[in-house]
Amino acid sequence: MLSKFGKFTRKLRIERNELLSHMAEKLKVSSSFLSAVENGKKSVPNKWPDSIKDIYELSSKESLELDKAYLDSINSISLNMENKNEEDKEIILSFARKFDSLDNKSKEELKNIFEIVGGYDEL
């Protein structure tokens, strides 16, 4: 079953009259790997959204659509905590552990806080 990312890349190829093998070549992977990513059998490599934006010179609208598809297709996100102190690491991990138990009101309050400090970009 095609992932949202897969649907986006397939649509992009069709609009540009391009074969899967051509896109795979541009992304420097095999056709079978690209196909597996599109079908949700492999994870989307982190660098692909930026690579696709650059290679295909996507418009702002297309870039946003790609970002949404990418975020919908990933199951996990890694955070670089290399330069974080122990207290910051503890806060970040605590937030991540408790996120699923937050109710909608709490999530909305957090969203408002992030908007105030300029750290929330709705995709």
Please provide a written account of the structure.
By secondary structure, the chain is mostly helical. It folds into two domains: 4-73, Orthogonal Bundle (434 Repressor (Amino-terminal Domain)), CATH 1.10.260; 86-117, no CATH class. It contains seven helices and no strands. It has helices spanning 4-15, 20-26, 31-38, 48-56, 60-73, 86-98, 104-117. Helix 1 (4-15) packs antiparallel against helix 5 and helix 2 crosses helix 3 (31-38). The longest helix has 14 residues, at 60-73. The radius of gyration is 18 Å and the shape is elongated. The model has no long low-confidence stretch (mean pLDDT 88).
Q: Main traits of this protein?
A:
123 residues, mainly alpha, 2 domains, 7 helices, elongated
Quick synopsis:
The protein is an all-alpha fold. 63% of the residues lie in helices and 0% in strands. The chain has two domains: 4-73, Orthogonal Bundle (434 Repressor (Amino-terminal Domain)); 86-117, no CATH class.
Helicity level, as a percent range? 55-70%
- If you average the pLDDT, what whole number results? 88
Per DSSP, the total helix count is 7
Shape: elongated
From the coordinates shown, what is the CATH architecture of the largest domain?
Answer: Orthogonal Bundle
Low-pLDDT sequence parts: none
Assembly category: single chain
Rg to the nearest angstrom? Answer: 18 Å
CATH level 4 superfamily of the largest domain: lambda repressor-like DNA-binding domains
CATH topology of the largest domain: 434 Repressor (Amino-terminal Domain)
Strand elements, count:
0
- Name of the CATH first level of the largest domain: Mainly Alpha
**Total separate domains:** 2
Largest sheet: none
What is the distance, rounded to the nearest whole angstrom, between the alpha carbons of the first and last residues? 23 Å
